Amino acid sequence: MGSFDAIKQAAFTANMDLFKSGLVIATFGNVSELDKGKGVFAIKPSGVPYASLTVEAMVVVDLACTVIEGRLRPSSDTRTHAVLYKNFPGIGGVCHTHSPFATAWAQAKRPIPILGTTHADHLTQAIPCTEVMSDETIRGDYETETGNLIVRCFRDLSPREIEMTLVACHGPFTWGENAQKALYNSAMLEEFAKMAFLTTQINPGIQPLKPTLIEKHYRRKHGGDAYYGQINVTMEK
Amino acid sequence: MGSFDAIKQAAFTANMDLFKSGLVIATFGNVSELDKGKGVFAIKPSGVPYASLTVEAMVVVDLACTVIEGRLRPSSDTRTHAVLYKNFPGIGGVCHTHSPFATAWAQAKRPIPILGTTHADHLTQAIPCTEVMSDETIRGDYETETGNLIVRCFRDLSPREIEMTLVACHGPFTWGENAQKALYNSAMLEEFAKMAFLTTQINPGIQPLKPTLIEKHYRRKHGGDAYYGQINVTMEK
Amino acid sequence: MGSFDAIKQAAFTANMDLFKSGLVIATFGNVSELDKGKGVFAIKPSGVPYASLTVEAMVVVDLACTVIEGRLRPSSDTRTHAVLYKNFPGIGGVCHTHSPFATAWAQAKRPIPILGTTHADHLTQAIPCTEVMSDETIRGDYETETGNLIVRCFRDLSPREIEMTLVACHGPFTWGENAQKALYNSAMLEEFAKMAFLTTQINPGIQPLKPTLIEKHYRRKHGGDAYYGQINVTMEK
Amino acid sequence: MGSFDAIKQAAFTANMDLFKSGLVIATFGNVSELDKGKGVFAIKPSGVPYASLTVEAMVVVDLACTVIEGRLRPSSDTRTHAVLYKNFPGIGGVCHTHSPFATAWAQAKRPIPILGTTHADHLTQAIPCTEVMSDETIRGDYETETGNLIVRCFRDLSPREIEMTLVACHGPFTWGENAQKALYNSAMLEEFAKMAFLTTQINPGIQPLKPTLIEKHYRRKHGGDAYYGQINVTMEK
Description:
Chain A is of the alpha+beta class.
């Protein structure tokens, strides 16, 4: 068994789960899983249809994006993943989709407001939307700069409390302790985006959820006083 | 066979049917079934994915929410279920979802107006939306207070004629004679919410259905003159 | 073999196809098929879930709605079907759904404008929406009056060219040469309703399709100069 | 093996894939594949349901639309396909659907603005929408004129860079190097149409993507500097 088999298997499974989730069509999207000890991650090869994806086709790269194992080119978004791994301590998975509701908010250049407890169960703020990238930066190392744009957007935010963002004009990136959690966050983000879309259509003047409710719901699931879920049971896939 | 097997099986089946219904994703939602004689109910354990749910994992609690049988923590919404069982005489099942259209109306803090006969076939009024919980109450026993909020919202309403509500900023709760009927009501509520959304988008000035039509459709299905369905046949799942 | 087996089988198949189509949920909807020679039709029994429907459960009634064969009550909408069979010469099937987009236009009390060639391939006008029923009539024989409302709406329209309508505040009824064609028309109506919804959201000032385009598309499929489809092949299910 | 077997098989597979894609219902839509050497193409027969389609039923016609092989009438849109094959050098497949979001933009007589990188990954401009056909032309050879309308719309556009269009009041046509690529483009177009719909609902004042971002994303996938996908691997179905 090769030394990268675990992350290749984890990345493969998460990419296949992404496809089955209905969040992406065609070759859209990619998920990666980091080996925190070795500082390398496994990611989907670029432009390969999900139907013909295999564990063996996964590409292993280091944080400088040098291919360590694999015969195919890694996803064109690989450098964005690498920037997130380097700057967001403790994360072990990154997921990128073009899911329609989240992408629509990104294209509208609008953060997704926190309007209900579904959202507050997971994070305490609006889903941030990055700045639009400057022309100079676009002409540079574009995928690295996409990562930098996200990192800059999180200057005053905690990437461990808010494990998701919208890249303006582009679409969502999410992350988490591993690839499955990053994928889970992509599914949640799409649901928040859909609910926020419907809510603002029904009541255009709606205001964000009040702080006490946000705090209460977030604390039900996170931190020392959490009482959602089981104590010694893995809960979420 | 244990003395709680019947309600555990009923609650398990309703929770699995909830997942198959498409009304919820991930670990969202929960359904419970009451044993009216024993004053105990079976409910989904907290945060367990539907794919790994079993009959044995269902948790049996009494109306004070003490665990009577089961090794796992009950759903974090258990105390809300208990308040409904204690205050709404005759009900035997409660269902909670975050289905997107109903949740959007709840987030918009708007009751769902009665705009057509699909809605009037089931109840004679708008689906009520509770007040937003006060800050003092949020800091207290939150899930019990969520139940109290619903009960207060039904001060002047009949919970046997209107077996569903929206909790403002949160989402829908429904109930009925058993878990399956509560689940059925959640599916109906989502359909009314979707139709009301589309209707108000098409005609923002639309007025509620007139009383004669409401009365007629409701009486077709309910009360002594009902002529919908079969006399001696169980009709609805 | 009983003398009503053919229409019972046709009605059963069309009702099951209705359920599989996704146009209805729960026990919503009903389809009937007429035996033109005998003046009787087979229809779904009232309130029976599709999952437990059988050919034997179909109810055969005459045009006065007297049950001729079958142990169950016929659909509560049976009298509406009968009025259509009596007043729209040549039709052999009727279908009623609560499909969401068509029902939303009915609840909005708006005809569905003819905005494109998908619609014009099938009929040359807006899908009419009936008047709202008067209070006196609602208190009378409601289902017969629903049929009368539709017939009155077609005073100046041809029910063979426009095989569908919206009943205001209620939902769609469609018909055709047999149950399958009536069901096909319900699916088409839902598609026109969805496209018209999206179109008017994108361009609220959109005007109806111009008469030359309507005429051209309708003539491609209907009348002596039709050139869509095969000459001796049954085309549409 | 007949000399047209390859294009008949390709056209059959693409038509069946079109149906499975969910982009069309009933008998809507058609895909064709061209034999560039022989100057003939295989297309779906008119009005035949997808469920009963076979390879043998595919109709082979030349660019004058004379039937070369096949017992059935070709699709009523055949002459539109022929015009595109004659005027857009190098294309080998054409696809026509009535997918709801793309059709809604066509009915709204609006080009689909380029609002994000999902769109820019595939083409650098808004999806054009043709003029509405003149009354004189409608009364002529309508399907040929539909093709002419598209060709005229591409006077100043490259049909190899923009492999899709909306025909005003009608719906989308797409093309590509073969039938599968044309079908892929129809699926992409529907996704762009859906995202643009949601985006403009969220932010009605949204402006098109800026040129530098359009250029960057398009160049990632197209031209000599492309770095998306694999060098020697067929990527997209």
